[in-house]
Amino acid sequence: MNGQTTMGLAAAAAAAVRPCRRRLLSSASVAPSKASATPLFPRCSHPQHQHHSRRLPFLVSAASPHTSQSDPSTTQTPITSDPRSSVAGNLPFFDHVLFPGSFPVETPPVEEPAPPADEVQTSASPVREESETEREAWRLLRRAVVSYCGDPVGTVAAEDPECTEMLNYDQVFIRDFVPSALAFLMRGETEIVRNFLLHTLQLQSWEKTVDCYSPGQGLMPASFKIKTVPLDENNEAFEEVLDPDFGESAIGRVAPVDSGLWWIILLRAYCKFTGDYSLQERVDVQTGIKLILSLCLSDGFDMFPTLLVTDGSCMIDRRMGIHGHPLEIQALFYSALRCSREMIVMNDGSKHLVQAINNRLSALSFHIREYYWVDMKKINEIYRYKTEEYSHDATNKFNIYPEQIPSWLVDWVPEKGGYLIGNLQPAHMDFRFFSLGNLWAISSSLTTPTQAEGILNLIEEKWDDLVANMPLKICYPAMEDDEWRIVTGSDPKNTPWSYHNGGSWPTLLWQFTLACIKMGRPELARRAIAVAEEKLSADKWPEYYDTRSGRFVGKQSRSYQTWTIAGFLTSKILLENLELASILTCDEDLELLEGCACCLSKRTRCSRRVTKSDIIG
After folding, report:
1. C-alpha–C-alpha distance, residues 479 and 496, integer Å
2. Within 13 A of 301's CA, how many CA atoms are on the CB side?
3. Strands (E), 74-212
4. Beta bridge partners of 245
5. How far apart are CA 254 and CA 263, in angstroms?
6. Which of 523, 499, 567 is nearest to 134 (CA)?
7. What is the pLDDT of residues 397-407, one digit of tens each?
């Protein structure tokens, strides 16, 4: 997309959004009632409303048990002074005030006739009683909820009462909130997710500068914090403001490449769970999607369809030698492109964008499947590579030296199994196993079905290495000795088998569960959850675990880490409702296998000689 188009999108976004603010009176003479708060921007008064989002039939049994149809006194939950207790309820209406031109005139809902009594009885499924660990997890998750202008907008990274130095753990991270959002959606509580999506969309248009340089307009923040600031010098009135971090405050000042990708993935999940497809069709939401894509699809010097990023731009947010084309970013990129293609409103202005998405998807899927995949057959092929080949038909296209094959790899990969390597660049292959990238490649169908089965086979075969006492290793193996000193710069937090250097992260449970369900192997996920459930509550829901087998709580791990809690809950709900996994995954797109940008440009030479039967088989 050219600069003129990007500027136009940015101007439209800036004109379409406006921060929501509420004046808070601090005078002791004012009664602490909700009516005494005078909003800076008026909010429309409205009667009690029904959810405009419809629940899918199988979500009814998973709805919050705080309401009962048999007890009329519990059909309406009053709003309490604690904002965390108002997670469930009606969807927000601030967007109607901020974007009055984006909504059609509301019509009164049409009441549908009640189904026969016998039909209601047959459709109701028995609800499994939650364990004490699950009940504790829900209490902790709700405790982590934060509100802005009286509406829940996300969950803080950690709510550790024993920690005095919060750093940025008291902020709402986009990547961290995803499992929390899915848990709330599958519970039937949609308001907090909608609020989160719209407020982070507003932050996208904010100015972001580091040392007089500003990144692209489509960049989403890594996190945001809610601050209360005085309106005047007398400190008699205050307002709530959102304070985003686009990387200018992060360690290393790295922009969060994955935030925008996760935002698109979560937007699709919200719309599919609730049926509220009007949200994705809004002008401001469509603009936000296109701004993110304009960053990802912009032309550059790279010869590969993969995204080129710096170290620390995703979940692994410290120096770990993943700069270049890390698998995690490529899997999220592919998934975000698939989701965007579903949600973009088709018109004359979006046809070229959709075509660009299709071209990138086709090239990216081939590139990852062909060059990132390793099994015993591929490793043996690399072992016999000839180097310094100068030819269009070269076998060793990236000039990989066989000496790069690490000694641990030969005996580690099973005969029936394989995985996607962590990174690929000219003359460099990162043979480490990265869990998130491999698992999300399965869920998004970036891998072939055969490759997806091979990844799960490897995890099962190497259970003691990747799961052991706590699922799941973020990467394997850890860097040690000179390699650790050179690659990480002797990072004291990423010591061998700790944190991002081979630590065990319980939040990865939900991605593992999703991949297992998609491949028809939920028993593997149940086995991993059983391991985690024995320890998480007793260990105070830590962020990560240390040692090769994940036996110790991480030496700098925060307790009551929110995405540890949410990952556990999301996994449990998915295993109780296997059909929900289909909403979060993507099926194989056979049309992508037949598409190739070379056909459009009439190139005479094309290195892509893969048939549909080869990919599926």
Report:
1. 6
2. 1
3. 145-148, 151-155, 172-173
4. 223
5. 18
6. 567
7. 999 999 999 99
